[in-house]
Every structure is written in C-alpha cells, then in structure tokens.
Amino acid sequence: MLQGIIEEGKVNSFNIPVYYPHPSEVKSEILNEGSFDMNQLDVSQVNFYELDNGFNTAQCTRAVAEPLLVSHFGESVTKEVFNRFYKNVNDHMPKEETTVTNITMVLTRKP
C-alpha cells in the first residue's frame, strides 16, 4: 500500500478469518456431528525452525491465500506480494526453536 502497489481501500476490505482449534475441540466437533467414527487422533509437534528458512512458510501461506488474493487484488500484484512476504518471513523468523502442531485423524464414515 505504501509503495502504491495495492489500493488502501482494497487492503482495508480484505480479511482471512483464521482459527486454530485445540485437538479436543476438533474431536468434540467430529463426534457431536455424528457422521464419522474416530479411529485415531494423533497430535505431533514439528520443529519448524530446522525445516525452514522462510521459503516453506511463504509457500504454505501462498498455497492457501493465493486464490483469495488473486480474486480480491488481481493477479498482477500477487507475485510481488509473495516475493515481499518471503523476504519478510526470512528476515524476521525466530532464530530459536519454533514448533508447529499437526493433528492427524483417521475417520470412518458411519453407514
């Protein structure tokens, strides 16, 4: 916005709501909904700092956000936005151990 790439109004009207539930919330919602039996639920921690220099974080974010960004801001700015995002992540990533929590489930659809 400050560099004139994206209009201020478009920035102010853009929002990606994100919520990271606790594993117990995920389990509860699946069981309450009732369509599936839960065969397995595993929670694991991944040491993200050892796996990433900022590139993987930027690419994961891009995989989720790119279609939303393109539809809201247009395709022309998306590549530049992610190039800047990668540099920003790379420059500011914590230099200590950072973990990410993964939830893996095995579900069987009830008849």
Automatic annotation (TrEMBL):
Residues in the signal sequence: none
Gene3D superfamilies per UniProt: Methyltransferase, alpha-helical capping domain (1.10.1200.270)
Gene Ontology MF term list: metal ion binding; methyltransferase activity
One record GO biological process: methylation
Keyword Methyltransferase: yes
Keywords per UniProt: Magnesium, Metal-binding, Methyltransferase, Transferase
Magnesium in keyword set: yes
InterPro entries in UniProt: MeTrfase_7, MeTrfase_capping, SAM-dependent_MTases_sf
Regions that span the bilayer: none
PANTHER family assigned to the protein according to its UniProt record, in alphabetical order: S-ADENOSYL-L-METHIONINE:CARBOXYL METHYLTRANSFERASE FAMILY PROTEIN
The name this protein goes by in its record: Uncharacterized protein
Organism: Trifolium subterraneum
